[in-house]
Specification:
Strand content: 15-25%
Helix content: 25-40%
Structural class: alpha+beta
Number of helices: 6
Largest sheet: 5 strands, mixed
Strand order of the largest sheet: 2-1-3-5-4
Radius of gyration: 19 Å
Number of domains: 1
Order of helices and strands: HEEHHEHHEEH
Length: about 150
């Protein structure tokens, strides 16, 4: 895959967060660094319709006064289940550092031919097929599914 200068400027950077659980296991999440996207994605292109904080409070007060039951729900990995439209502009993520080595070790047949060296560091450019937490367009893509 050839990457032009515009794509390099709008490149998604991954952020790897991990922590130790009480049981001693490690929990990890990879997400996109949204701050790099603010330069070229407008608010209208990146936000899904959401309720205001005030409307949430007012609705909660009314529901409490009327003694209604309320419920919240979480959809696990909602963004990861959301496809990125491949007919539009490609979203490229830049993976660097130790994670590149881990990916090559796990699946050398997939990744080893695509690793490049930049400033003495291993770098892997991947095209995103699914939305990822932290990408500014993820919530909008998920909203448009319905």
């Amino acid at each position: 895959m050839t990457i032009c200068q515009k794509q390099k400027e709008s490149m998604q950077w991954k952020v790897l967060c991990f922590w130790f659980k009480k049981c001693g296991r490690i929990k990890a999440r990879t997400c996109a660094n949204g701050s790099t996207q603010r330069q070229y994605i407008t608010k209208d292109e990146a936000t899904s319709p959401t309720i205001s904080h005030e409307a949430t409070i007012i609705t909660g007060v009314i529901e409490a006064k009327q003694q209604r039951d309320i419920m919240t729900a979480d959809i696990p990995n909602a963004f990861v289940q959301t496809d990125i439209d491949q007919s539009g502009e490609k979203i490229i993520m830049k993976i660097r550092g130790e994670l590149v080595g881990i990916l090559v070790e796990v699946s050398p047949e997939i990744y080893s031919n695509y690793v490049v060296q930049e400033k003495g560091q291993s770098v892997l450019y991947v095209q995103m097929l699914k939305a990822l937490y932290g990408m500014m367009v993820s919530s909008l893509l998920y909203y448009k599914k319905f």
